[in-house]
Amino acid sequence: xxxxxxxxxxxxxxxxxxxxxxxxxxxxxxxxxxxxxxxxxxxxxxxxxxxxxxxxxxxxxxxxxxxxxxxxxxxxxxxxxxxxxxxxxxxxxxxxxxxxxxxxxxxxxxxxxxxxxxxxxxxxxxxxxxxxxxxxxxxxxxxxxxxxxxxxxxxxxxxxxxxxxxxxxxxxxxxxxxxxxxxxxxxxxxxxxxxxxxxxxxxxxxxxxxxxxxxxxxxxxxxxxxxxxxxxxxxxxxxxxxxxxxxxxxxxxxxxxxxxxxxxxxxxxxxxxxxxxxxxxxxxxxxxxxxxxxxxxxxxxxxxxxxxxxxxxxxxxxxxxxxxxxxxxxxxxxxxxxxxxxxxxxxxxxxxxxxxxxxxxxxxxxxxxxxxxxxxxxxxxxxxxxxxxxxxxxxxxxxxxxxxxxxxxxxxxxxxxxxxxxxxxxxxxxxxxxxxxxxxxxxxxxxxxxxxxxxxxxxxxxxxxxxxxxxxxxxxxxxxxxxxxxxxxxxxxxxxxxxxxxxxxxxxxxxxxxxxxxxxxxxxxxxxxxxxxxxxxxxxxxxxxxxxxxxxxxxxxxxxxxxxxxxxxxxxxxxxxxxxxxxxxxxxxxxxxxxxxxxxxxxxxxxxxxxxxxxxxxxxxxxxx
Length: 625
Known about the structure:
Elements: E1 3-11, E2 17-21, E3 28-31, H1 38-50, E4 79-89, E5 94-105, E6 118-129, E7 135-137, H2 139-149, H3 151-158, E8 159-160, H4 162-173, H5 176-186, H6 190-211, H7 216-269, H8 274-302, H9 304-307, H10 310-326, H11 335-341, H12 357-366, H13 373-380, H14 392-415, H15 420-469, H16 472-476, H17 478-518, E9 522-527, E10 531-536, E11 539-541, H18 546-561, E12 567-570, H19 580-590, E13 594-598, E14 617-618
Parallel strand pairs: 3-13, 3-14, 8-12, 12-13
Antiparallel strand pairs: 1-2, 1-4, 4-5, 5-6, 6-7, 9-10, 10-11
């Protein structure tokens, strides 16, 4: 679908007040200094097109903050923010989209990870189609924009910036599966999805019709159980999707912080100062020493059964017997702890945090958890002593010696005095490491929750199947239900074939575009095994073309993924070298409208392709009214 943007007006969001007026020009170049609102504009467009009104609260992101604050933190009290986006389609219809947000920003809560300090009272969407016609409101706006133009699934690609390019580069080299999953979303065929939905409806109808032949009491009971389990399963699938989304975000954050920590470490190691180099050496020795101590202590723990006194074996067996008899958790950790956690108000007795509704349900389920077979086997096995030459005294002496060595290194490390600039490097890296551990903790926790959720999903699916098979009336339609399942498999296989062909086509398009920009000796390859790579004279590697080449590949991938014709680019060529003119030529030839949000330093050899310098439009953030 081809659309053309006419204007974008931002009023109040993140303290921004300006209008981007495209007018009747084919392409537009807006010159904007740093902190004027380039990234905010891109992220506002993504936010407006991806999230419907009822689901937009606390979903705005900005660079690496997810969520980010959307209101103006300098305004005290209640405030109203507006974004107005005007565009027209290739049939001449005029559209005016407005998202209004009312709320207030509480600076004391700016560190809150859910709201970033925003307290949003309401979000309201409207869409006027041709002046004087009825106006769409609420979630119907998002439904219309996605049905007509698929703006939601394209927003990440026709609204393009350096951060999105960085994400594409990472996926193309180290996260191939995620890259392919994006293409799978892009190639989801609406007709295949329609058939799959109809097959689901047919299955539900068959189950409903089958229940008519049952007695009223059994019918009501089975139908109620089935509906309840299906609703629970659907809700659980939503939870799994949410967890997967969270894991994706946390993985990105950990990867980003790993890169930043490596860069800071390299700066420290390559510093000219002998003092900072000595501190870096001592730091490395500290890490090695701590690992050695940890390994030796782990060895002691691993062999504890060998050196443990025989009289203690009886105590261990008593504990195992207690756990085995309970079958779940030993008191007081079972009854007392769970009871204390669920008191009013419900508070975790381990970490002291208030429990939300989901946490309360998880605590309740602890009381129903039965130890698996492997645990029961361990609980019934005897604790036996073994003859061994394992010398506990010697290993203890080694640990003490290493601990003394560690203390000496730590003392020397602490005595080294650095300049303020060098000290800032260490402090910045320490802060990045702390952030990394925080996000990695969330990642590990989310993965654990996801495993539990997938296990529970399997249980629910099994329970649904058991309910269906309990009735002979349901079994009568089993052949039809089996046929529906076979049809679903066939449709999914057809979709997989379409996906494979789409990957092939997208790869060919990207390869031809890369050749036109970088030269005939360059090609590109997209595959499910290797991801997206640049090739030179038939040799493919992630290193070919350097950062500039990979950045160009990310542009080309975005073009292939977008389903609308315009492209809006934030700081487009900061890391593109000598290929700026060729990239500009390519973008101009392949898009009906190009809108550039450029820093003043990014104009040369690029922006002139889209507008004459006299027509560059300088945008300043206007003062608040």
